[in-house]
Amino acid sequence: MRISRAGLVPFTALILTGLARAQSPDQVLVVVNWRSPSSREIGAYYIYKRGIPQGNLCTIDTAPDEDVERSVYQNQIETPIADYLRKHGLRERVLYVVLTTGVPLRISARNGFNTMNSDGAAVDSELTLLYQRMNGVTIALTGAVSNPFFRQRDTPFRHPLFPIYLVTRLDGYSMADMKGIVDRALMARNTGKAVIDLRAYDTTPGNQWLRTAALLLPKERVIMDDSAEVLSNIRDVIAYASWGSNDHDHKQRFLHLQWLPGAIATEFVSTDARTFRQPPDSWHLGTWEDKGTWFAGAPQSLTADYIHEGATGASGQVSEPFLSYCPRPDFILPAYLSGRTLAESFYMGIPGLSWMNVVIGDPLMRLRP
Q1: Average pLDDT in the 173-183 region?
Q2: What is the span of the domain harbouring residue 138?
Q3: Which three-class secondary structure state does DSSP give residue 67?
Q4: What number of helices (H) and strands (E) belong to the chain?
């Protein structure tokens, strides 16, 4: 296996001068689903651990299904959250919205998911636009909406400059996995390696973004591989980016990485956030041709596996986003390692909203010296 160290673009140029204006717990709205005991439990745990004001807890009442119709989303999720923000005078103050397990994951698509004009979306991504809707903006339901925070390397996230909410989710296979996200976020430190695994013999933009991510980080902190080997069994990992199971050489469900507290992961996989139900231990990554290898409707790698193995944050897609709308590691990793929050870092790298993307983790998490 060929391991190379990437070149260096001045990393200090990426460090935000406005980091002193860090967002605070009173700018986070936590959303729990009353019908889900797990949602209520992880919501209360996060509020206690992070010091979120009790007045920033919004409770909705809907079936804890992963998939919902658009009408259910509008009537039982979006409208109650909007009403709560208005009633408590939080529309402008809140910057981050944290959903919890048991809050539905995906809005069903009446015209199918495998099209750039799909009217389906991740609940999380749709909610980012609630700020605009509360201010009277009408937004089309088909296709992705441009993210105004995309590529904003040098500007702290704030209202009204960026008229969206940054939405993340606390979710995983078990309560232990979810509480682990919260606990490890509070221990995050700026140490460890960024592991960047390219697809061999690939000239697509995805490989170019991975290479650029490596170039933008200090070379002593990067492990990058562009061979047919798959990076695994690496210690002290603080960030990971790859093609996941879309790399045909990637056969293992678990990579046995040793994740440091605060570690994040991102990959170019169409359906890795399709479910947060735990597969049986016997399940392995499969192929689209063999439906017997599928779990929850697809054979691909799962975001929740990274959390289960010890990552503290991750991105994923509930359905086909197309490569052009996948999170961009060349923005996410440099931002995160330079001290931006988890939510800022991921949304800086997500091109479109009202689309398929979800971000798992504590939005306030940042790597401290």
Answers
A1: 98
A2: 23-173
A3: strand
A4: 10, 15
Contacts for 116 with CB less than 8 Å, ≥ 6 apart: 143, 144, 322
Residue 15 has pLDDT above 50, yes or no: no
Same-domain pairing of 85 and 212: no
Residues 62 and 127 in one domain: yes
**Bridge partners, residue 169, by sequence:** 99, 360
**Structure tokens given for 282:** 């016997």
Of 150, 173, 196, the domain-final residue: 173
The rounded distance, in Å, linking the Cα atoms of 229 and 250 is 8
Q: What is the pTM of this model?
A: 0.94
Query: Residue 261: enclosing H or E segment and its boundaries?
Result: strand 259-267
Number of domain units in the chain: 2
CB-CB contact of 330 with 150 (8 Å)? no
Report, in this order, helix, strand and coil percent for the chain, each rounded to 5. Answer: 30, 20, 50
| Residues β-bridged to residue 241 | 196, 266
Residue 176 CB contacts under 8 Å (≥ 6 apart), including other chains: none
Tens of pLDDT, residues 230-269: 999 999 999 999 999 999 999 999 999 999 999 999 999 9
Closest CA to 207 of 347, 315, 302, 328: 328
